[in-house]
Structures are given as structure tokens and as C-alpha cells.
Predict the 3D structure of the following.
Amino acid sequence: MDEGQVEWLSTVVSASMTEGRVDWLTAVIVGGVAGWMANKFMHAHAHLATDIVAGVVGAVILNAIAERVGYYYGGWVAFFVLGFFGACLLLLPIRLVRVRMRPPRAPDDW
């Protein structure tokens, strides 16, 4: 990655408004918690590393979309909310694949 890409990614991840800046460590922790909660909400049964990646990447993607639309947030609370919804969107294909690949169960096995 060149210097411009690193700077752009840093500004997407770290928003500075009223609540302060979200640094990389906070982004990983808050994104990991948001991804874990999204995993439990979606019943995706993914691994912890997948949860963390889905939370952080989901927050970064939704943050970039929100900034393009004109919504600027500040702080880790909004990062958490965007991370949760972004992780839900990223975990949706995992959930759909796991449900479709699950072997059928007998009606009396419920």
C-alpha cells in the first residue's frame, strides 16, 4: 500500500468529531465485539477471527458509504453500530451457505 492509501484508510477508520478519535487498537476491540455480537445474532457459527475481521471490515465499509452519503459520525459508539450492521451483512453469505449445506433432519428429530 502506498502512502495515500494508508492515509485514506486511516481517515476512514479514525473519525474525529465530538467523541474523539477511534485508533487502530480501539477499532479492533470494538469491531471484534461488534462482529461477535453479529455472529450470535446471525447464528453464523463462525470463528472468533472471522468475527473480528467481519466487525472491523464491516465498520470500515459502512463508514466509507456513510461518508459518501454525507453522514459523519464521531467516536467508538457509532463505529460499534456500523461494525455490527456491517458484520451482519458480511456474515450473511456464511449463514446462507451453512443453512443450505446442512443435512436434512427427520421431522421427529426436532
About this structure: The radius of gyration is 16 Å. The helical segments are 3-13, 24-42, 48-69, 76-101.
